[in-house]
Each structure stands twice: as structure tokens, then as C-alpha cells.
Write the C-alpha cells for this entry.
Amino acid sequence: MEWTGRGVVLTTRKHGENDVILEVMTPDRGRHLGLVRGGRSKRHRPALQPGNELTLVWKARLSDHLGQFQIEPETLRAADLMTSAVGLTCVQHLAFLVRLLPERHPYPRLFEALSVTLDHLDAPDAAAALLIRFELELLQDLGIGLDLSSCAATGQQDDLVYVSPRSARAVSREAGLPYHDKLLPLPSFLLDGQRQAGSELTWPDVTQGFELTSFFINRHLQEHSKQESDTRGHLLSALERRYRKEFPWNF
């Protein structure tokens, strides 16, 4: 068995004295693991850092074996990511989220969202928006995607300001007002065409966006997984510090 493709490094773990088991996210085969011979060597170690993108050749005798990776660096982001708290915590959080998906299933849209997010972590509001949209795409692949196209109660497509925690559908201001305390806020930047060009997200926008996605991700964790992580908490703290520095008027 053999395939060639590209993948983003999620994690590595030591295997023996010189080798590592590499975990990557690929577009066509999803989350995939394989052994890298000499992965702890000076030659391979810089390429095998989380966030880097590699060209991969995977080989195994049988398809269900761990197999071995041959690697070549393609896009080396790790050095830049490690210079900021947002970069470091973001890679950890994204890796945790990707592990909620089963191995070896193709998720091409999520892979592209991962690559775009990692490429734009140096822009404070763009990074936050992309991270939230990544979580929305993840929810879609988990089978619990949100429908923000129209009001669940009336079908109208404008003035959508809530999300129902039961149906994961948008709710209009008028229809949701009597149930305001039971609904989740829907930040306007998640609706197509609602964010004006040149305007940055406010910190309340960011916190509402993460509260929305985390509600449904946490529900999935409670129902389908025993995994727990505080990576989101560390990421939000790093984002908030950056926001207070870059956009103090948004608080």
C-alpha cells in the first residue's frame, strides 16, 4: 500500500531512540499517523514541528498497518507560530479539535480551513474569525452543523440574532425575543454579508462566536467522547491579550 499527498503536522511522539510517530491532517485521508525513521535527527526535527506542511509518502504492507512516512518540507510555519502565544495555543487547540474526528476519513474542506487559519494567525481579528469558522466547519463534519441560513420559526432570512440550542438553527429577533434567555447569541459576522469591509471584530463578537461553537462542541464531547482539554481557555486568554493591545477601544 502506498499514497502520496500533503499534510499539516499535528503532533509527534517519540518511538524508540531515533524515530517518531507522526500525526498529520491531510485533505484526502484526514487524520493519519505513520512512523518516521530518524524523525528525531537534526535533519528531520525542524520539519516535524506542529503547524508545518509536508509532502508525504506513506507506505505499509497492509492498509490497516501504522505504516511509514517519507517526508519533505513544503510550508514551514512553525518558527513564526512559536513566536507568539496565539500561535502556540492555536496549534494545540486545532490539533485537539481534529482528534475529535475519526482517523483516515477525508475532510478536504476542513483541511483547507486549517491551512488558511494557520496562514493568518498574525492578524488579530482575522485569526479569531477564522478560528471560529474552523470550529463551525468541524461541527459540520461531526454531523452537528449549524444552519444559519434562515429563522427556524418563521423562515425569514434577515435580522437573525439567535441560535436555538436544541435545533442548532438560527432564530430571528422577533421570534426569539420571548425566549431570549434560552437562546444563544448569534454574532453578525457569521452571517454572509453582515461584516463591512475594513471593520475589525470587537472582543464581544469574538467571545460570542466562541461561546456559540463551544456549546455544541462540548455537547459532542459529553455525548461521544471522554476527551477533555483546556486548549480553548489558553487560546482565548492569548487572543484577549492581543486584542487589548491592538484594539483597546473594543473593550
